[in-house]
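Shipment paperwork, digital attachment
Item: protein structure file
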Amino acid sequence: MMLERGSAPPRATRLSALAAVAGMALLFDASHASADTVVKWLHLETVPAYVKMWEDIAAKYESEHAGVDIQLQFLENEAFKAKLPTLLQSDDAPHFFYSWGGGVLKQQSETGALMDLTEAMRADGGAWEKSYNPAALKGFTFDDRIYAVPFKMGTISFFYNKELFQKGGVKAEDIKTWDDFLTAVKTLKEAGITPIAGGGGDKWPLHFYWSYLVMRNGGQQVFEDAKNNEGEGFLQPAIIKAGEQLAELGKLEPFQGGYLGANWPQTLGLFGDGKAAMILSFENTEATQRANSGDGKGLAAENIGRFPFPAVEGGAGAATDTLGGLNGWAVTKNAPPEALDFLRYLTNAENERLMASVGMIVPAAAGAEDGVTNPLVRASADQLAASTWHQNYFDQDLGPSVGRVVNDASVEIVSGQMSSEEGARMIQDARELE
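Attachment content:
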């Protein structure tokens, strides 16, 4: 899962790129060749203002630590996922990189490519470890060993165009249940408005629907049983019902034409251009829809509303259960000590509060949440604060093998190419093959 992606941001001389044509070659600014220690930082952030903030933080750190050069490297989201496994085993491995936690991070840790951060974070009475929200560390800890530094938390929710809702006669406050949501979709279509911007080309954006429906129907115990291959696994009735509800949504044709080929930047741009009424997306959607819109301005902040994924009547899950990220920075085994020192600096309460103040993150650093001033991001922060169960993205938590099948099945079910039971069986088969 991902942070929102778009076209690569304009780069200052210090930001490097990983060009697709160049394969694994990392391009660095030769002007920094004389630095005593180079720290290579691989990210996939595309909002220019956010990258600029990171550059400023890095520059401040460099000014206080002579001989250290922090070099930012960029990869687009899908290229990041495709190239990272090979990159981690190469001489060009970054010293730290963006992580979604969950099963993917666990698998990376088992290859020996990552540095075990437990001793470093628990030194001096655990001061570094205790500087984060305990929940933020959970997705990065396996068998009581820590493999990434927390950066931010987030939750997936619906964002909507207030003008299109008004034009279509839909009120967001009336959308409390899944049936209410389907009614809103029908009402918008009848008004000639595309209800939802959908990103089927990248697949993972559509797995949010299936995942949330599984959570709302089954609750935490059903998902945990399926994840651990207990009982009926992913063939449990509540999970089958979730797929049936997703198929019901698909039959309404709620997405834009050609949605099965639309990547995530295009999907954000569609919403930002006012061509769809809703998008199920990340907490920083206000910024990313703007960055990916045709005019670079997108929807005005005051024209964007937000509401949580609706409840399912009769379901075991609560409306206060949340799906989203626990994102951080994984450190590679050969990273220099300066990489750890910089990460501690980058994610301290002061810097996380600064990033939160511009709507960039919901901070993982304890005490930094007061920096969240953007109303839409603050709504996500408040929802997380009241969460009764926060679940990492399914495609990350279940590991790469099962996660890919979850994404594939979600697209197949919503597009009517596969039944709910067929999709559940495909996921269960993948789980049993692990």
